[in-house]
Amino acid sequence: MHLLVTGANGQLGQCLADQLRAQAIPHTLLTRQDADINDTVVLEKIIANNGVTAIINAAAYTAVDKAESEPELAQRINVDGPTALAKLSARFDIPLLHVSTDYVFDGNQQTPYIETDATGPTGVYGQTKLDGELAIQRHATKYIIMRTAWVFSEYGNNFLKTMLRLAKERDVLGVVADQVGCPTYAGDIAQALISVARQLHEREKQGLAEARYGIYHYAGDEAVSWHGFAMAIFEEAHQRGALTNIPVVNAIATQYYPTPAKRPVYSVLSTVKLSHDYGVDASDWRAVLSGVLLKN
Ligand SMILES: NC(=O)C1=CN([C@@H]2O[C@H](COP(=O)(O)OP(=O)(O)OC[C@H]3O[C@@H](n4cnc5c(N)ncnc54)[C@H](OP(=O)(O)O)[C@@H]3O)[C@@H](O)[C@H]2O)C=CC1
Ligand SMILES: Cc1cn([C@H]2C[C@H](O)[C@@H](COP(=O)(O)OP(=O)(O)O[C@H]3O[C@@H](C)C(=O)[C@@H](O)[C@H]3O)O2)c(=O)[nH]c1=O
């Protein structure tokens, strides 16, 4: 097995790199500087020269609000890039493991979303991620589209880091309490992707033609509002001595925190299918919080 990871400088990419090294799995890491995911010619050479057996695409345009004013760039990275990778996956007959988002849903449901539920993105980011999913389904046959949500880690930019920064700058914060989802640790997503890649590889070697490809949901095991997530972060940070004073965190309605992009009100993902097909359990995000805070 030799895994090619794109987006290696992102928060998921760095967690993948850590775990591939720790598990001594042969791999090639590509940052945007190494190779743009749209650069088919360069990627073709890398795949052939390294004997790549699967691609994990952790590259993406993830600036939800900025996407509203940069739709072309978001389209290039979230749709054209995955299209190019899907075509390479088909040409080399190797699986493509791609990561997508809970923001493909409109949020009008009141029970956890399963993989076959109707999509309906509320903003440009979600729309481009959905279009990327559709392009992969059109151009590749051996694909895993892993939708995840509310990703946090010790790396990059994420809600946890924003909250810790704001807590140092202000005594009072307002955080929306009427948007509900599942925080997910990027290290757990990395582990889930590697486990799926490994199982696909084994099944392929054994000639099991019905390898389980398709869309899968992977997210945290407990749903909360952004306000609830902020409180969990502050309480854990305070307990670990990483934060002296917990700010006052007012629970506010979405209308009092206006943003360029509309976000789904409810985007809880059911992880039952992944657990059934691959034996991968949901991310126990509360359990890993303290470890992540200690690395900050
Ligand atoms: N963050 C979240 O809360 C969530 C993320 N997801 C999905 O998970 C995946 C990983 O997200 P995350 O790790 O947070 O994302 P990041 O924004 O942290 O990382 C994305 C990486 O992609 C790289 N990249 C951007 N454009 C290109 C390109 N054209 N060619 C090659 N590389 C490129 C970026 O490079 P550079 O560093 O140079 O900018 C960056 O390192 C994405 O598919 C995202 O949509 C899903 C749900 C929630
Ligand atoms: C900073 C801040 C945000 N908020 C709100 C705004 C928004 O509704 C919510 C989350 O804010 P953020 O902008 O940090 O998170 P956002 O960029 O919307 O996070 C999303 O990123 C993409 C990539 C995904 O795929 C999603 O799953 C999700 O994780 O919290 C407050 O209410 N108060 C605050 O002080």
Automatic annotation (TrEMBL):
Signal peptide: none annotated. Its EC number is 1.1.1.133. Gene3D superfamilies: NAD(P)-binding Rossmann-like Domain (3.40.50.720), UDP-galactose 4-epimerase, domain 1 (3.90.25.10). Binds 1 Mg(2+) ion per monomer. It catalyses: dTDP-beta-L-rhamnose + NADP(+) = dTDP-4-dehydro-beta-L-rhamnose + NADPH + H(+). Pathway: Carbohydrate biosynthesis; dTDP-L-rhamnose biosynthesis. Residues 1-292 form the RmlD-like substrate binding domain. Its cofactor is Mg(2+). Keywords: NADP, Oxidoreductase. It is an enzyme of class 1 (oxidoreductase). The keyword Oxidoreductase applies. NCBIfam families: rmlD (TIGR01214). Catalyzes the reduction of dTDP-6-deoxy-L-lyxo-4-hexulose to yield dTDP-L-rhamnose. Belongs to the dTDP-4-dehydrorhamnose reductase family. This is dTDP-4-dehydrorhamnose reductase. It comes from Zhongshania borealis.
